[in-house]
Amino acid sequence: MAPSMPGPNEKSAPRFESSTDPEELERFFSRLEELFDKCAVTTDAEKKKYAVVYTNIKTEKQWKVLEHHAKGTFEEFKKDILSSYDGTLAGDRDAMQEMKQLICQYRLSLIQERSDYMSFKWEFQVLAAVLKSEDVCSNRELVDQFLTPMSDGLYNSMKLQLERLNPPAGKTSRDPANPYTLEEVMASGLDVLQGVFSSMDRKRDEVRGLDTATSSTRELHGVRASNRSNTNVDEVAVKQEDVGGILASMKDIFEQQAQQAQQE
To answer: Segment Disordered: which positions (predicted)?
Structure first.
């Protein structure tokens, strides 16, 4: 049986009392929603009731006159509250700007080493979570942005790794317009840099008849390389006969990883 929501005056109860700090309001809702999950509070009416209960009298009165308190979902009511406090809805715009700056920073020297990849991945996924929660960016858009600063060798190896994935549960194939989740793409890069996608794996795929060297290795999501990156580096489409070049790039990555391991 799920526990009950704490009373307004209990120590474990979240509180919000007319703070002018947007981060305090966001933290209040974050704690509130954690309690909803823990205590199995599922209806919009209950969620809105508890939202106003954990405030002071003045704030409760202000929130109760908002458009979606009487009618509307909890998410609509929450958005009304956030928009009534200066700066609370600016987070998604700030996150978008930060993401653009992050990509520009790493695009100056394309990512090909594990240390750079992990640093970029950590910063990117924090910003992606903000943009995704507010429906600012779709999964497809986030994937395209994530792949932008990858070096040619790493990008091609990630694509080969992703092509080996099975379709999602309950489906026989992947959506051509949005084939991979951001999480799958991030994991593929980590697998490649850790040496999981070895030449032995590739040989096994060839035996199975999987196409591991297509001329569209620059079109993971149907977007050509010219759209993926605007750098001054010349980008050449990898042709079917250039398998050796792909393997050479992979070998370089693995050698760099081995050197790093020896240094550590």
So the answer is: 1-23
Residue 45 domain boundaries: 22-85
What is the pTM assigned to this prediction? 0.47
Tens-binned pLDDT, residue by residue, of the chain (264 aa) = 788 999 988 988 999 876 656 678 888 999 999 999 999 999 999 999 999 999 988 888 888 888 899 889 999 999 888 877 655 555 556 788 889 999 999 999 999 999 999 999 988 987 888 788 777 889 999 999 999 999 999 999 999 999 999 998 888 999 999 999 999 999 999 999 988 544 445 555 566 665 544 333 345 554 444 445 444 333 333 334 444 555 555 556 556 666 665 665
What CA–CA distance (Å, rounded) separates 217 from 225?
9
Tokens standing for residue 17 = 């009392």
- Classify residue 186: in a domain, yes or no: yes
**81 and 99, same domain (yes or no):** no
What DSSP string describes 54-101? TB-HHHHHHHHTSHHHHSS-HHHHHHHHHHTSTTTTSHHHHHHHHHHH
Q: Cα–Cα distances in Å, from 166 out to 16, 154, 173, 203, 238?
A: 46, 21, 8, 18, 24
Residue 72 is assigned to a structural domain of this protein: yes
Residue 45: both structure tokens together: 């009416």
Same domain as 102, residue 76: no
